[in-house]
Amino acid sequence: MRKPAKGLAAAVGTAVAAVGVVVTVGSPAANAATVTYNVHCTPPSVGGSPFDFAAQVDLTVSPSKPAYAVGDQVTVTWNWKAAAKNPSGVTVNADSVQPFGTVDVSGAQGGTIAVSGPKKNAATPSGEPLWLSDMTGTLTVTKPGAIHLSPGSYKNVASMLGTWETPCDATGTPGVSATLQVDGSVQSATLGVTRGEVRPGSAPFQLVGANWPAGGAAPAVELCAADGAACGTSQITVSGVGVDAGGNLAGRVSVLPTTGEGDYKVRVSSGATAVAVPLKVRNNAPAWAEPVAYDVSCRQATNGAVFPWKPRVALELAPEKPYYSVGDVVSVTWRWKDYPRNPQMPGVILLKDTVTPSGVVKLSGAQTGNVTMNGPKKNPGAGAPPAVVQVSDMTGTFTVTANGAIDVSPGDYALKLIAQTTPCTAVGAPGVSSTVQVGLPAPPAPTLAAAPNPVKAGEAVALSGLNWPAVGAGTVGVQLCAADGSACDPAAFGANTLNVGPDGALGGNATLAPNAPQGPRLVKVTVGTGPGAGTASAPLTVEPPAPNLRSVELTPNHGPLGTVVTVRGTGYTPNTAISIAGVDKDLQPTFDLAFLDSGPDGAFVGQLTVTKAQTDQIAAAEGVDQNKAAAAKFTVEPGGNTDGEVLPGHLGFKRTGASDKLVELSPVTVDGTPQTMNGVLNQVIVQDFRGGTLGWELTGRMGDFVSDTQGTLPGAALYWTPNCAVLNPDSPSPVLTGMPGAVDGSRLCGMPAQTTPGLPSGGEFSADAGLALHVPGFQLAGTYTATLTLTLI
After folding, report:
1. I need a labelling partner for 448 at 20 to 30 A (CA). Which of 214, 228, 539, 557 fits?
2. What is the per-residue pLDDT across 74-95, written as a single tens digit (0 to 9) for each?
């Protein structure tokens, strides 16, 4: 058995061309669309009864252009397409009614536009349509992206023997009449939680975010499994979630007491925008505004009598955030959950606004001390003891001075009644109501695992781990080191497919070089550079490479040019494509080629005709993998056909035409209905000058479309209708045209192998196709890019 031929890959390589496909999905200028929506109108008492009306309005924007810029100011005109009847019993005078209205702004920018029109109307008898003047207003563009305009509520102000208003309120959500496309970088929506670890049933945490679609329905909030699946609302309560005109999201979420411990994700969605962030639910999570019931001993101010009590207090902190810094000023609010006892003597009632509360909040842990608390003199009247008195809540502040966890607990309090004070002293140590986390915790160190272990030199090892710098931190490097971590060598590995996902998970394979150092070693992975880089090592034992059991036998192993050699191979992977090739003394291919498959036992028998005088070996490989090959010596002897030699040419393809694009697709405008982008695959020319009998196939592989607005379209949605033709009339072979269908993995054109003895295959052929990309009715607008790979083999 001889060393496999290094040049084998060149003999059986594929011709690949990667091309970019640019697809535009967008809206044209802000053209008007008539919107019909219901309004409820309430005339003044002298103007008739309330009535409902199906308003019809379109909104036009001036200037009208395909794209606007941040800072542009546009005029929005409200055009009436229908008129309500005059509901009064009298004729409305000419030019006596002035309309006022609001246009709702949503999408990339929120808010409303005030519009109004002049007093310009015809005299309108009772029961006849009352046409009002069109209204105008202005909008200043402040956000890039798609801005939607919808008609809203309006009112009519009539001046006839006084001023009379008729408001007409929208009773539903009017549709979009016009959309402005605004150039600029569209920022992705963000989402955060003020506490990333909460107790079941604890106080609500805040949602915060930016760059959310403004206007429209409130975003939906769900609690999902850690992998983002199994989302629902049964384990949370949500309050006050909304998006303001600037795209800022806010709201509160509570985890129900029945929610089990575990890792979850909070998912917020609004239309096509959805973001999820991790949330840990732990029974021992840091406390936050937990109600604390504790015992106190109170001394009545008037007679000195001592009485016990058990208030219940929650301490709320502001600003609310997951981590604080030294120097932050924290506001504490003492919320009474169970009020204190009336401090009066037995039998004496309490008057309104006569009690002033004060108290102390205890700090412990990383920072110790007391926080002075005070509340205003504000209470309702109360019955005689033991009735409670609903005294006001109290507030105080403290400055953070130390890193770590600071526990906040209620302590002593006092109730001042006019000039007399009843102190109440905590008995024992009250529980912790809130915990302040100061300083960011150290991020967990990256982890690394290698499998299999041990592994043979020349084979691939799967590497995985967690807590790695996210995508964008840099390339992933892998090295093989001595067992003590020294003498690290990246050359001990060949190609790798290592990558880090957005969640910090490392995965992929790295292939050891056949000559990698053997014995106990460390595999070391590094991601990124500088302070944010991550590195970790894992033990890896490298064993000697697996013996190459592949062998070939030639019959005969010598002869003149034209000799037909029977090649027998054993030890190959069963049922695998095998390539047989002649090579010269420099291990370069001679382009004598043959192809077949190994059998279930890994053996094969094939034939190769030797036509090149420089032939020195005949090699057989699995596919084109030179590490899975074997070769045997072949000696070319005098004789045979040495009068002349016809050398093979190339197999390849090239583009034609003046266009710089291989693929061109027409744009579409989103309108709520499925659409098709039509286009063409511009012509390529396939040339087969090999002078052999083999055929070929030209196939396509389509990647997914991704837009600059984070939209996606599956590559499987691109279909083609192939068109193939013979260009050179002397071509000995016909061309086969592929079937219409999805591009991905299908044949564009092909040429059959020659089956007639003594005749070659080959020729010159053209290949192009009609294209159709299917686009859903609702798709993020933007410029979509994908990669189409044409492979000739």
Report:
1. 228
2. 999 999 998 888 888 888 899 9
* 3-state secondary structure at position 490: helix
**DSSP class of residue 379?**
-
- Token readout for 475 is 């390339």
Cβ(654)–Cβ(684) below 8 Å: yes
Joined tokens for residue 290: 């937990």
How many whole angstroms separate alpha carbon 242 and alpha carbon 248?
Answer: 8
Sorted by sequence, the CB contacts under 8 Å of residue 222 that are 6+ apart come out as 231, 232, 233, 236, 266, 267, 268, 269
CA neighbours closer than 13 Å in the CB half-sphere of residue 426:
18
Q: How far apart are CA 491 and CA 464, in angstroms?
A: 20
Tokens of 429: 């140590």
Sequence-distant (≥ 6) Cβ neighbours of residue 227 within 8 angstroms: none
Half-sphere exposure (Cβ direction) of 95: Cα atoms closer than 13 Å: 1
Question: What is the identity of the amino acid at 436?
Answer: V
pLDDT of residue 22: 33
- Phi/psi at 676 (5° precision): -130, 125
- 110, 247 Cβ separation under 8 angstroms: yes
Neighbouring CB atoms inside 10 A of 490's CB total 12
Which DSSP string do the residues of 652-680 spell out, in sequence order?
A: EEEE-SS-S-SEEE--B---SS-EEEEEE
Helix (H) or strand (E) holding 618: strand 617-622
Is the pLDDT reported for residue 333 higher than 90?
A: yes
pLDDT tens digits, residue range 237-280?
A: 999 998 887 788 899 999 999 999 999 999 999 887 888 989 99
pTM over 0.70: no
Residue 121 to residue 160: CA distance in whole angstroms: 13
Rounded to whole angstroms, how far apart are CA atoms 465 and 739?
Answer: 44
Q: What is the CA radius of gyration of the chain?
A: 40
Question: Cβ distance 527 to 568 under 8 Å?
Answer: no
The per-residue pLDDT for range 633-676, each reduced to its tens digit, is 999 998 765 455 677 778 888 877 655 567 878 888 888 888 88
Which H helix or E strand runs over 8?
helix 8-11
Q: Are 450 and 536 in contact (CB under 8 A)?
A: no
E-strand stretches of 64-144: 73-80, 97-107, 111-116, 135-140
Q: Of the candidates 734, 774, 739, which has an alpha carbon nearest to the alpha carbon of residue 753?
A: 734
Q: Which two tokens stand for residue 498?
A: 């290592």
Cα dihedral sign, 612-615-618-624: negative
Residue pointed to by tokens 């002397």: 730
Q: Which of 283, 288, 290 is nearest to 322 (CA)?
A: 288
Please tell me the total number of residues recorded for the chain in this structure: 793
**Collapsed DSSP state (helix, strand, coil) of residue 491:** helix
